[in-house]
Amino acid sequence: MKPRRRHGVTLIETIIAIVVLSIALPPMLWSIREAQIQRANPVLSSRARWLAVSKLEDVIADRHSTTRGYDYLIGANYSYEPTLTGYAGFSRRVVLNETLADLATPGDGHMNVSVEVSWTDANGTNQTLDVATVLTEYVP
């Protein structure tokens, strides 16, 4: 008589599978979470850079505008934006400092323009990006 073949899973096999899964599952879930964070942070940084450059281009356009010009470049014309429409979690500030040609001594003729964008990254850390340029009063 042939030995009878048993089909199915034994209790020991089931316990081993549960132990293996309980050891392997938490690191796999943590890896998936970290991958999501690593994917999100560059997107947020890129968005911040775009927001900073966009505002800086607005200031440069104001400088070269025939109706606004260099004299328009004062802090009162560029208010702090604590929230940006369509960009939740981002804020933006424009800082203008007029200097002499050495770009350090306060005076007339050169405007240091800095646009600062702040946001919270996927890790919950506050981040800041600063983009700057110098504009002159000189008109050729």
Report on this model:
With 140 residues, this protein is an alpha+beta fold. The protein has a domain at 42-136. Helix content is 39%, strand content 22%. The protein contains 1 helix and 3 strands, in the order αβββ. The chain has a 3-stranded antiparallel beta sheet with strand order 1-2-3, covered by helices on one side. The longest helix is centred in the first third of the chain and has 54 residues, at 11-64. It is rod-shaped, with a radius of gyration of 29 Å. The chain starts with 10 loop residues before the first helix and ends with a strand. The model has no long low-confidence stretch (mean pLDDT 90).
Shape type: rod-shaped
Largest sheet: 3 strands, antiparallel
Number of strands: 3
Low-pLDDT ranges: none
Could you outline the blueprint of secondary structure elements for this entry?
Elements: H1 11-64, E1 91-99, E2 110-120, E3 126-136
Antiparallel strand pairs: 1-2, 2-3
